[in-house]
Amino acid sequence: MCGICGIFAPGRDGALAPLSAMTDSLAHRGPDAAGLWNDAAASLGLGHRRLSILDLSPLGGQPMLSTSGRFVLSYNGEVYNHAALRGELAAVGCRFKGGSDTEVLLAAIEAWGLVRALSRCVGMFALALWDRRERRLSLARDRLGVKPLFYGSLAGGGVVFGSELKALRRHDRFNAALDRGALALYFRHNYIPAPHCVYASARKVRPGRVVTFDEAAARGLRPPREECYWDAEAVWREGFDEPRTLGDEEAADALERLLTEAVRLRMVADVPVGALLSGGVDSSLVTALMQEQSARPVWTFSIGFEDAALDEAPYAAAVARRLGCEHTELVVTGRDMLALVPDLPRLWDEPFADSSQLPTAILCRLARRSVTVALTGDGGDELFCGYGRYPWTLRAHGLLASVPAPLRRLAQGVLRTLPASLWDVLPRGRKLRWRLDALGVAGFEALYRHFVSHLKDPRVLLPGAVEPADMAKWPSAMGDTPDARRAWMCLYDILRYLPDDILVKTDRASMAVGLEARSPLLDHRVAAFAARTPMGLKWRDGQGKWLLRRVLYRHVPRELVDRPKMGFGAPIPAWLRGELKTWAEDLLSPASLRARGLLDAGFVARMWREFLAGEDNWSHCLWDVLMFQSWLLADEWGGAAGLSGAMEPTVGSMGSVGKTEAVDAGGAAASPAGPSVSSDSDSPSGPANEINPSGTAKTPGASMTDGAGGAA
Fold this sequence. Notes:
By secondary structure, the protein is of the alpha+beta class. It has a 6-stranded antiparallel β-sheet with strand order 2-3-1-9-8-10. Strands 4-5-6-7-11-12 form a 6-stranded antiparallel β-sheet. Helix 2 (82-90) crosses helix 3 (101-112), helix 14 (357-368) packs across helix 22 (482-511) and helix 29 (590-596) runs antiparallel to helix 30 (601-612). The two termini are 21 Å apart.
């Protein structure tokens, strides 16, 4: 895993000068080596920071030239089937100097062309390819959006790109004016969905796309060409319309074979590998399949909380013991997570307010002490219908549909005529009004968007802002049956929530400490299988992820993993009333808000007042504002773009750390594994979910002593 960046500015003297600084800004993504490559005649420069995973020798360094010298590649990611592709290419005469997947990818591009080569790859990646003959720059991203890639325009002409926005900000000709429409999206979702970006002059490459700039496009004379090589929506719709006909056991067998292969490929590395284990369905299944294919105990990592409402550590420890893993656990206090809050703008250098970013960042720091690669369970909820908000939305729609449409329209009309001052004097008045607004929402799809929105109308906070029109065009309906609606909600989250929240959270938290996170459930072949799996195998007996559970129960007793979903978040309401109150009051003060002239200070003051008085739980919306204000302050003085070098991966004095001894099938202590780790979205705090309040502190279920460093 690496960080990439570059500049293409035809005819612009001096435009390549910031390339080295741009590359250095991504050092945390690739702490092992750096490389620069320039085509001065074309005003093209590529930068690369390397996290060495395969072929640790200089032969794996980048930017890398193809054998013919026509192509130059700066690439972030992994092609997991590179060995099979290498054999196929060698059979037709390709020769290789080293053992890296980068060299294989370049040879595939030269042999088959970029789009066909990407279509043959199993992996996660973001790349920049320079065609020296055609003088074209192509930017591409993996099918489901695991790896990020941004690009933006330069004043006077030229394009700049990078794995993170901080690289773009290092160029003195990049225009950092904010996009108010994108900010409206942020306050609706708590993230900014692709292709939009907080900066008006920047965009995100969308998953499964190739964006190509020739000289005219780079100069801004015409838009770049965008090509789709894998369309998640088309795959999902086709799969729903033409599902496989499989029995329960046959389907479980087929899924287990696919997942076993996906896990096997992601365990291949020349560095230590492990799994981030929450004890939920997804991470437990990934860990079980890892252990089944490992001759030695797999290293697993989890974090526990003093707050019982958030603590899944005892479940993770139980699963690890059952599987015979070498398990390390860190008990995290509120003080530990609070200490990380000032770093958030540096890690997520675009406004981002999923509170589970805090424990995820701490977990990645813990894992990085021992391993360089971590397998995760991301994707299970979206692909296999796992979120609790899905049945809740169906029930709400059923209730609303039971009210005759004329009555709903009449009630909605009456509500709109009531003065705002009336709602302000009612207990929970404004929130009640927004919930009653659902009476006027037309259609199931609009209702789901309404429910997953933090602010139903971001203009109340960001006056005059207009959300981009393309974001209001959610995917069209897939039918009016319950199964069709479940499939549609999964599709909506696959296209938006998964790549722009869950995977953003995992990528920034892991790469901040030079940890490569790999997601077997997001193998595109698994996604295609999930698309063609009948809904009756995903949702059954009132429970989601039915087929995943069926496979998991073959390895782990159901009593260890069957429990209500828990939020992997932070106790934001308790913090805002306690340790973070002074910090929050400063950022939310009218003076602070009016100094920038972006947000409605009066509306923020009302949210804060009602929250403190216990009238409304505005904590999630307030956290969105606080994360934006923190980001804005950091951006103004360069802090959001100022992360150079990897964050300290050690845990330091955080919490109490300990490890559980690995046990073999017979119960005897087993020798430690060559590191072999998995975080998942088993319990993410989705956009529709309230943040869990802080509970009563308790002693962690698995007693851990100091000395986890000994596991290294």
